[in-house]
Automatic annotation (TrEMBL):
Taxonomic lineage: Eukaryota, Metazoa, Chordata, Craniata, Vertebrata
Residue ranges of every copy of the LRRNT domain listed in the record: 66-97
Main subcellular location: secreted
Name of the protein: Biglycan
SUPFAM superfamilies: L domain-like
Protein origin, superkingdom: Eukaryota
Membrane-spanning ranges: none
GO cellular component labels: extracellular space
InterPro entries: Leu-rich_rpt, Leu-rich_rpt_typical-subtyp, LRR_dom_sf, LRRNT, SLRP, SLRP_I_decor/aspor/byglycan
Compartmental location: Secreted, Extracellular space, Extracellular matrix
Keyword hit for Transport: no
Family stated for the protein in its record: Belongs to the small leucine-rich proteoglycan (SLRP) family. SLRP class I subfamily.
Protein task: May be involved in collagen fiber assembly.
Length: 371
């Protein structure tokens, strides 16, 4: 069982991830969920939990645990980096966070994690792992976070623990995601798999079957369109830095729960009229660094949209009704960010009433057209 403090924290996070249109949208940086920058925060959380918990006193082990050679161990956190070529064999059985990043590990063997049934998070980023034994993760019955980025994986690891909630496998060599690749992972909430040479044809039908994800990122890949059959439960979908050329009417029809959509740094020239109608709760839309000639149709009807990135496109004209609805009371929230810089727009030709549903004039960014 997890300590009471961890259960309380996870309950709070779950509540925060539930989309609620009545709440104001808190804008975050575009890459805040995209990288591994929160590993340090994860370690701090684990240590604070062990040092500061007054809810449940931890039992003292009968025998003093040994720390693997070359590692540092403190309150169920084991850190080993910079020199290992294999997973250490003598990791304490009560370890909750195992950090093996920045090593020279090339494979995960069947018994590498034997006895670590209490492990909560495993960090394997920045190694040279290309082989994973099918039963390597079998002992990790309570693991919730697996950070596997910057390795040499060519496929999604098999038999991942059913308890897993967060998987980060970006910057590997994965080209194909077969049907059932994430089978039985009904607790999975977040998958980060950008930076892999994935094409649309690399996703087999049923690749995400059974998942109820909140967050998915497939950026910096080789997608030419929005992938089909992604989980309908998604709140955030990031497909930036691909080769997507257009958004067709049915591309977004499954994802009515989205409140954040990232499509920046693509080749999008056209967004078919009506495409955005399927996203009634969208709050943040990134379409920067594309090839749009016009403001996408449908923005005034999006009642909760607050942030729109349209900079670095080919937009030359802004009409008075491109952003705001005609009637009063139609829009539930005001815009707090519209970026239009690096477009061939003469800002003095734009009528002030165009931004009548923007919270503050400082929220509008025109800037200069790129040279």
């Amino acid at each position: 069982m997890l300590p009471h403090s961890v259960l309380l924290l996870l309950l709070c996070v779950t509540r925060l991830l539930t989309p609620c249109p009545a709440l104001p949208f808190e804008q975050k940086g575009f890459w805040d969920f995209g990288m591994d920058s929160d590993i340090g925060e994860l370690m701090k959380m684990m240590r604070d939990e062990e040092e500061g918990s007054a809810v449940e006193e931890l039992p003292h082990p009968k025998h003093e645990s040994t720390c693997p050679f070359g590692c540092q161990c403190h309150l169920r956190v084991v850190q080993c980096s910079d020199c290992l070529t294999a997973v250490p064999y003598d990791i304490p059985s009560d370890t909750r966070l195992l950090d093996l990043q920045n090593n020279y590990i090339t494979e995960l063997r069947e018994n590498d994690f034997k006895g670590l049934s209490n492990l909560y998070a495993l960090v394997l980023r920045n190694n040279q792992i290309s082989r994973v034994h099918p039963r390597a993760f079998a002992p990790l019955q309570r693991m919730q976070k697996l950070y596997f980025s910057h390795n040499h994986l060519t496929a999604v690891p098999k038999n991942l623990p059913a308890s897993l909630e967060e998987l980060r496998i970006h910057d590997n060599h994965i080209r194909k995601v077969p049907e059932g690749a994430f089978g039985n992972l009904r607790n999975m909430n977040c998958i980060e798999m950008g930076g892999n040479p994935l094409q649309n044809s690399g996703f087999e039908p049923g690749a995400f079957k059974g998942l109820k994800l909140s967050y998915l990122r497939i950026s910096e890949a080789k997608l030419t369109g929005v992938p089909k059959d992604l989980p309908e439960s998604l709140n955030e979908l990031h497909l930036d830095h691909n080769q997507i050329q257009a958004i067709e009417l049915e591309d977004l029809s499954r994802y009515r729960n989205l409140y954040r959509l990232g499509l920046g740094f693509n080749h999008i020239r056209n967004i078919e009229a009506g495409s955005l109608h399927y996203l009634p709760y969208l709050r943040e839309l990134h379409l920067d660094n594309n090839r749009l000639n016009n403001v996408p149709a449908g923005l005034p009807e999006m009642k909760y949209l607050q942030v729109v990135y349209l900079h670095a496109n080919n937009i030359s004209r802004i009409d008075i009704n491109d952003f705001c609805p005609l009637g009063f009371g139609m829009k539930r929230t005001f815009y707090n960010g519209i970026s239009l810089f690096s477009n061939p727009i003469n800002y003095w030709e734009v009528q002030p009433a165009t931004f009548r549903c923007v919270s503050d004039s400082l929220a509008i960014q025109f800037g200069n057209n790129r040279k």
